[in-house]
Design a protein that fits this description.
379 residues; alpha+beta; PTS-regulatory domain, PRD; Gyrase A, domain 2; four-stranded antiparallel beta sheet; 16 helices; 44% helix
């Protein structure tokens, strides 16, 4: 009934809230106030939203802590906060300095401690060196001797047959055997020298035995009314394969992984959530529309692009705008070689050539009808 004045979503929310609050006779006043607030929230035509957004981040950014790492709450997971996190987020760095995954569980498992522990145990990456007590080289017989930690193997439900099969599939031209608690890795090539044997030893240490690659630590915590598993590291594809994991809510702070696995819209929302999280932790307040604008600018091409000279700045149509950011000579020479034109549609290029910028009153063009010309046409 009010869709002409406000959006459908606002209309639905208003109707729902009026029902909950049992507002009957004052419903029209409530809707009138919502419409007024909605109109006030709109951006005026010609508003310099880019500059205002830059200022809204720039000013609070000077008040942010420069401390890079922080142990977050009860989970004691190391996370990057403050200005360093905001910089790596908006620069669209390929890998976060402290990758982290929040793993939510399906209904029925998220409140059962045993189910949570069982799922958490499946997540942590186990390498061969994690289930060994000692690794040594037997130079006389050209073999590697590994003393296994049987207690850890029992806890992780790893048996000798599984271990043998896993090692043989990861290392080529070797023979695996067992001698009581010792695991023997012997090269099939008899002409193995000391250097090759040492390299084989180092390579065998990092063999992936069980769990998910990249997940180094897990901490189940009780959040609100359910258990959530906080994991150090990021590997969404494999996490989603674990039975009991709720893929609709599980997320990581690695925005590129979010884009690859869940799509660009999920990455956009993740950029917004991560930025809001950093800003709130600093006790600052930035209008969400500024954050949304930055996230839109970074993802509107279908790929994540940082606010850098090789990111969204490199895609600007204006030669002068690109030249004003970094490496001006390179941009001007390249534009000259292909005969590129600059239509001076944006702010910075008009400032550079001392013209009125197309913002506010400088946005519309005025056309005057002269009386003398009008009179001539009438004759």
């Amino acid at each position: 009934m009010f869709s002409k004045d406000i959006t459908k979503k606002l209309e639905d929310e208003a109707i729902e809230l009026c029902k909950e609050a049992k507002i009957g006779d004052k419903k029209k006043e409530v809707i009138k106030r919502i419409k007024q607030e909605y109109e006030n929230a709109k951006i005026s035509p010609g508003e310099s939203i880019g500059i205002i957004t830059a200022e809204s981040f720039g000013e609070p950014g000077t008040q942010m802590i420069l401390r890079t790492f922080h142990f977050a709450g009860v989970a004691e997971a190391e996370v990057t906060l403050g200005l360093p996190r905001l910089i790596e987020l908006f620069d669209a760095r390929k890998e976060p300095s402290t990758p982290r995954t929040e793993i939510y569980l399906k209904h029925g498992m998220n409140k059962d401690k045993d189910s949570v522990k069982a799922i958490a145990a499946q997540l942590v990456e186990t390498k061969l060196q994690d289930i060994t007590s000692e690794i040594s080289l037997n130079l006389t017989q050209t073999k590697i001797e590994i003393i296994l930690d049987k207690k850890k193997m029992r806890d992780l439900k790893i048996n000798d047959a599984y271990l043998e099969k896993t090692i043989e599939s990861n290392l080529k031209k070797i023979k695996v055997s067992f001698n009581q608690d010792k695991l023997i890795i012997k090269p099939q090539d008899e002409e193995y020298d000391l250097k090759q044997l040492f390299q084989l030893k180092e390579k065998s240490k990092d063999i992936h035995i069980k769990g998910i690659k990249g997940i180094t630590q897990v901490s189940p915590i009780f959040n609100g009314n359910e258990f959530v598993i906080l994991a150090s590291g990021a590997n969404l594809k494999d996490v989603f394969k674990i039975e009991g994991v709720d893929g609709s809510r599980t997320k990581t702070n690695d925005i590129f992984m979010m884009a690859d696995v869940l799509g660009i819209e999920a990455a956009r929302q993740n950029i917004i959530n991560e930025a809001i999280n950093v800003i709130k932790q600093q006790g600052l307040d930035i209008d969400i529309r500024h954050i949304m604008l930055l996230a839109d600018a970074m993802t509107n091409s279908g790929k994540i692009k940082g606010i850098t000279r090789s990111g969204i700045t490199a895609e600007k149509e204006s030669v002068l705008a690109r030249a004003s950011f970094e490496t001006p000579l390179k941009h001007i020479v390249n534009a000259s070689l292909i005969g590129e034109e600059d239509t001076l549609n944006s702010v910075i290029e008009n400032v550079m050539v001392n013209q009125a910028v197309p913002l506010g009153t400088g946005l519309p063009d005025l056309i005057a009808k002269m009386r003398s010309k009008m009179q001539k046409k009438e004759k």
